[in-house]
Amino acid sequence: MDTKSGANKAPKTTSSPAVTTAEVSKELAARPLSLVQRVVDGIIHGVSRGTYVPGQRLIAADLAREFDVSRAPVREALAVLAGEGVVENIPNRGAQIRRLGVDQLSDFMEFTEAICRLGIRRASSAMRTPEAREEISQAFENIEKYWSRRSAPEFVNALYEYHETLNRLSGNTFLDFFYRRPYFTFFNRLVADLVPDSDEVWEHYISHYRSIHQKVLGGNVERAEAEFVSHIGWVLEIMRAGDSSRPR
């Protein structure tokens, strides 16, 4: 074999430029939603806005008309939502929005604490850039806006988007991915229904988040985490107290 000719040399490889997580997310966001995903997102959005409520039946023909699709993607969407714990299939009744008790929602809040605590820890350390500080401050403005309106569904959604922003800024792609799962939006909305609608509760909620937000902006990781954990403990306490006072 003629080794000088280079016939047996390995072909040269050229390295592709590194693709950032932000670029991948941007590319995915630009893609059109599938029909199935459109129905999934529409139902989740409906739950967050109170259009669909726990125990409400979901009839495929009605959903197909509402979302202007055939029944096939509706059935697939309901299967996806059943897998996410948002929808349950009841014998002889079909699909309906899942009902959850205070114990299940308390478990969810403890899980949320772990996820969001990591986001707060990682994002607080990333608050050195003006861009990150501006982005999280804009997210917090929505919390203030919907707090002033005393609109529980929109307020809860603003809280979700605030933590979604923190998780994205954290740089942990798994954290960002899991927090975007449909069940987070769904369970958060159900938690809001268990929190008493009183001026005292509203004032405590915004006071807690103003303090947490300031600690995040200041990069005070330990205090931001500690105050968030304390806040979740307070939410669990009033949820359980509110549930015990409900008529059975």
Tell me about this structure.
By secondary structure, this protein is mainly alpha-helical. It has two domains: 65 residues, Winged helix-like DNA-binding domain superfamily/Winged helix DNA-binding domain (Arc Repressor Mutant, subunit A); 143 residues, GntR ligand-binding domain-like (Four Helix Bundle (Hemerythrin (Met), subunit A), Up-down Bundle), CATH 1.20.120. The protein contains eleven helices and two strands, in the order H-H-H-H-E-E-H-H-H-H-H-H-H. Strands 1-2 form a two-stranded antiparallel ribbon. Strand 1 and strand 2 form a beta hairpin. It is globular. The N terminus is likely disordered.
In summary, what is this structure?
The protein is mainly alpha-helical and 248 residues long.
Task: Please name the defining characteristics of this protein.
two-stranded antiparallel sheet, globular, single chain, Four Helix Bundle (Hemerythrin (Met), subunit A), mainly alpha, disordered N terminus, 2 domains, 11 helices, 2 strands, 248 residues
The helix fraction, in percent, is: 55-70%
Number of domains: 2
Strand content: under 5%
Average pLDDT level? 83
Instruction: State the strand order across the main sheet.
Output: 1-2
Tally the beta strands. Answer: 2
SSE series? HHHHEEHHHHHHH
Helix count, DSSP H or I runs of 4 or more residues? 11
Structural class: mainly alpha
Largest sheet: 2 strands, antiparallel
Distance between the termini: 89 Å
Q: What is the CATH-assigned architecture of the largest domain?
A: Up-down Bundle
The CATH topology of the largest domain is Four Helix Bundle (Hemerythrin (Met), subunit A)
Globally, the shape reads globular
Low-confidence runs: 1-31
